[in-house]
């Protein structure tokens, strides 16, 4: 059972069976009531209807792991026009990686249906979520993006391209390297977490090594960065991989393998 289910069980242990059944019935009634009110009031989404939607989401996300609540939500959502959820897309996407299987399944089905009708409303927030550092959130977002590709592949590709270009323009390699070096340094010297350091530095190296000077699509600043620091970064990448192999083979800690990269970072600051 999940932590929420265990907590619910602990609270329920102090209640009689009839009390627990009554509480669950109240939750089902509240979900059904909110959904019916939403369905009847969505000809024009007023402040009152929006409040009903937010109240419903609160109950659903908090108690959606209960079978009775999940069943009520599954039935009630079918009565609500998909366009109703356009106003709460951020709240829905914020929960796409919930650990509650029943809630996650229903939520993904709801978003997939909404995406089939209004892909433009989901493509950007899902693209952003697919870049999340949280692996669970990233996988959930990528799964939903794939469902959008089925019927709106061109739109998804264009959104991904625009997103990549915006990131490329907004975050230059000097800044990105400096930030990653700071993070890796804190993890290595502060926590002694060698694996964590590698998880930060190696993907950065691989990203930079994936391009060359003068490659189409690269900015002038990126070309300049590669000319200035490419040789040192290549040496640092080789050292990191050598030490990684040593660690895997012998379980030895990694010495200061990031030193050449740190020098390149200081020169660029």
From TrEMBL:
GO terms for cellular component: cytoplasm; nucleus; TORC1 complex; TORC2 complex. InterPro entries: DDR_Repair_Kinase (IPR050517), FRB_dom (IPR009076), FRB_sf (IPR036738), HEAT_ATR (IPR057564), PIK_FAT (IPR014009). One of its GO terms (molecular function) is protein-containing complex binding. One of its GO terms (biological process) is TOR signaling. Residues 1-132 form the FAT domain. PROSITE patterns: FAT (PS51189). Pfam families: FRB_dom, HEAT_ATR. Gene3D superfamilies: FKBP12-rapamycin binding domain. This is FAT domain-containing protein.
């Amino acid at each position: 059972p999940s932590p929420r289910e265990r907590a619910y069980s602990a609270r329920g242990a102090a209640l009689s069976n009839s009390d627990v059944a009554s509480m669950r019935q109240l939750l089902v009634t509240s979900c059904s009531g909110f959904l019916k009110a939403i369905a009847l009031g969505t000809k024009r989404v007023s402040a009152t209807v929006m409040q009903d939607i937010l109240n419903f989401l609160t109950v659903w996300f908090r108690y959606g792991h209960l079978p009775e609540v999940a069943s009520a939500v599954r039935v009630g959502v079918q009565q609500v026009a998909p366009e109703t959820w356009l106003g709460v897309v951020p709240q829905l996407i914020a929960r796409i990686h919930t650990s509650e299987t029943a809630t996650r399944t229903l939520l993904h089905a709801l978003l997939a249906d909404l995406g089939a009708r209004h892909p433009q409303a989901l493509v950007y927030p899902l693209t952003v979520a697919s870049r999340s550092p949280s692996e669970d959130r990233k996988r959930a977002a990528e799964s939903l993006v794939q469902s959008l590709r089925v019927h709106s592949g061109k739109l998804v590709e264009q959104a991904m391209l625009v997103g990549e270009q915006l990131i490329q323009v907004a975050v230059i390699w000097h800044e990105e390297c400096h930030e990653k070096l700071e993070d890796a340094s804190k993890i290595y010297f502060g926590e002694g977490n060698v694996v964590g350091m590698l998880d930060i530095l190696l993907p950065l190296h691989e990203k930079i090594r994936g391009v060359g000077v003068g490659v189409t699509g690269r900015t002038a600043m990126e070309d300049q960065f590669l000319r200035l620091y490419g040789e040192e970064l290549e040496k640092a990448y080789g050292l990191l991989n050598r030490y990684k192999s040593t660690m895997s083979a012998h379980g030895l800690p990694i010495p200061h393998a990031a030193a050449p990269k740190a020098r390149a970072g200081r020169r660029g600051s």
